[in-house]
């Protein structure tokens, strides 16, 4: 029998707790709407979580969209399917994930995702890097030279395979 993993070191050192919680209401509009009709809602950005994680609700448009296989060097990525079907690449093959299915991708893990038909999922990065600029720039459809695109991807810890 293995011993349980210990808790991480304390980060709060006060005595009585503090009022520091915040809430994002479910009826807030998405921060991004893509040309495909898909949306991205910033549930908890890295800025709001002091860099601990970033959590987003991703809802696909009708047509299938999503990134090809890639990896990140400094962040893990997690996918939790809320509704519909999402195809997830687990580094070996594309698998069809449905409501309640979860995929964890550690740093360096090959992954990708594709969905359509209004499917939705939670997408989480840990630690919480500044992914918002990545999503917003792609949504604007800015023209980039190959060199600019390579620099942009490197700045956002995204490496295509």
UniProtKB/TrEMBL annotation:
Q: In the UniProt record, does the keyword Isomerase occur?
A: yes
Any one GO MF annotation of this record: isomerase activity
Q: Name one Pfam family in it.
A: Cupin_2
What organism is the protein native to?
Nocardioides soli
Q: Which PANTHER family match?
A: PUTATIVE (AFU_ORTHOLOGUE AFUA_8G07350)-RELATED
Q: Quick check: keyword Isomerase in the entry?
A: yes
The protein here is known as Mannose-6-phosphate isomerase-like protein (Cupin superfamily)
Give the keywords, sorted: Isomerase
**Domain Cupin type-2 intervals:** 58-122
């Amino acid at each position: 029998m293995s011993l349980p993993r210990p808790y991480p070191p304390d980060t709060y050192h006060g005595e009585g707790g503090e009022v520091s919680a915040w809430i994002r209401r479910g009826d807030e509009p998405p921060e991004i709407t893509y040309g495909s009709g898909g949306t991205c809602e910033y549930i908890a950005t890295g800025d709001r979580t002091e860099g601990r994680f970033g959590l987003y609700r991703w809802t696909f448009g009708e047509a299938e969209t999503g990134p090809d296989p890639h990896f990140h060097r400094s962040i893990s990525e997690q996918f939790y399917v809320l509704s519909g079907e999402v195809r997830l690449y687990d580094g070996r093959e594309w698998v069809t994930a449905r409501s309640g299915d979860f995929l964890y991708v550690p740093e360096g893990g090959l992954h990708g995702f594709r969905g359509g038909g209004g499917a939705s999922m939670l997408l989480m990065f840990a630690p919480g890097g500044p992914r918002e600029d990545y999503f917003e720039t792609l949504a604007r459809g800015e023209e980039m030279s190959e060199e600019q695109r390579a620099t942009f991807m490197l700045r956002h810890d995204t490496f295509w395979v």
